[in-house]
Structures are given as C-alpha cells and as structure tokens.
Amino acid sequence: MTQAAKPPLTVLMGAPRGFCAGVVRAIEIVELALERYGAPVYVRHEIVHNRYVVEDLERKGAIFIEELDELPDGDRPVIFSAHGVPKSVPEAARNRNLFYLDATCPLVSKVHMEAERHFERGLQIVMIGHAGHPEVIGTMGQLPEGAIILVETAEEAERFEPRDPEKLAYITQTTLSVDDTKDIVQALTRRFPRIVGPHKADICYATTNRQEVVKEMAPRCDMLLVVGAPNSSNSRRLVEVARKNGCEKSMLVQRATEIDWSLVDGIRTLGVTAGASAPEVLVEEVVQAFRERYDVSVETIETRKENVSFKLPRELRQAAAQ
User: Fold this and answer.
1) What is the pTM of this model?
2) Which runs of E-coded beta strand occur in 45-160?
C-alpha cells in the first residue's frame, strides 16, 4: 500500500502513561540484585504485572516463584514483588535464614502502616479492594485474620454490619477506580459518620493521574487502547474509565499482535495509553502497527507532569551509586 493510499488516523497519546515510580523501583531492585549477587535471583510472584517485563528479567537470570517453599536452600536472594506480601512471608524467610529484598511499593507500605495504626487503636478495618489481588492479600495479611473486612462494591458497603459503628476505619487498594471508590467511601461515611479514613487518599498518584488523562481523552476517541496485562488492576480500571467517559470501544492489549483489526475499521481518532506496569517499548510497538496501516498524526494529551521517585533498599543503594 502506498503512503497516499493509507487512511488518515489521529492518535491521541495519554500522558502520563506507563511505568510509575513503584514499578521502576521494583524492576531496578531485581536488576541491581542480579548485578550485585549474580544469577539466579529469585522473585516471589511476578515483580510487576507484565509478561514482557517478567520475561526480560528471566533472560537476565531472575527465577519467578509463587511461594517460598519452591526456593532451594542456599544463599540466593529472594525479592518480594511490588504488590506487597503478608507478614507471614518475611517471617518464613527469616525462619529459613533467607536473604530477602522487599520491592513493595512505598505507597502500598503506607497503607500497611495505616492498617497497623488503626488496629492498635482498636478500630475494625474495612478494606476497599478486589478479592484475590496480591496487594489485597498482602495488606490483609499484615494483621490477624478477621481484623480487616474486604468490601468490593457500594452494595456491599450498604450491607456491611460492623462490630461497633463508632470504632471503624477504612483503607483502600492503591490501584482502584477513583470514581468507583468514591461511591463506596460515600456509602460508608453516610452510614458511619465517625469512620476514620486515610489522611491522604490511598489510591496512588499514578493510578489517579492515568485515569484523569483517560477521562480527558475518551470523549474524543472512536477507540481507545490500554497497553497492559489482564492481571493488572490499574490497567483494567483504565478500560472501565474510558468506557464510562464516552469511548465504548475501549480495550486492553498486551502487545500489538493482540489488536483486533476488524474492530479498527472506520475509526478516525485512536486513544493510546498504558497501565503503570507496561513499558513504553510496548506502546511504541502498538503505534508502529498503526503507522503500517494508517497515515498517523500523533497528538499528546498531557494532564499533569510526574516527577516521583522512590529510594532503593539500603542494601542496593551502594550498588546503584557504583
């Protein structure tokens, strides 16, 4: 097909998109551990929810496991994923004298500390989140069983019966839909006016910012693609936000090979963004696939600048400096 024959397509690129500071830190921890201690380095659970990232680290010498009992005895380091782990995991590592590095996102650790503080004050804790997500398992695992009650929807918040309505607190998963969470919080605060919330919202800056730009883009798009993994909570929320804000034809793709070209026919404006654990190389791959079929003009929709970074664990700071 000649250049002239290609139909025109405006591609709106969401900014900010892709990697957040917690993901950058987690990947860097694995790479620096490999540099400092040599391969193999073990990682409990996917370090971040992205197959491309995981496979790249596997090529460099990382071995991914689901539980510590898969780890052979010896002096090989084990790294805990960015989503955080229940307290029982570092405890099991210490019992086996394992050397571990914790790549939990500092914003997830903040929620863990909030939960501990509420518990010490004798408050029953409601966690707003998705059952089975590693972050939720990790946060609920900070305290004895039953100390944290999971609520997934506004309907559940309406039905929830606390031990004592005067002694309640809530925390949230960091990667939720800002709007859906607001509905759940409103239900809880209406029913239990004395419920204690976080000083600063638990939903992380990156989740909030990526949803904000999608809200801006969606009404202008005939189709919107979110580059991200199906097990990435924040990526799936972006698709939901796009649909709710005027772009019904919104979908998640991991790679350019997953694009269903039969659905693309007739579109004039395409939105492209990426979840917080998706690398920019995959975004470029998707845009390139459209360039091969369309005469693409790119416009960036930027709603705010991000300049957040997190410190590495002490054991690795020296390696990073070198």
Assistant:
1) 0.93
2) 62-65, 78-80, 100-102, 124-128, 148-151
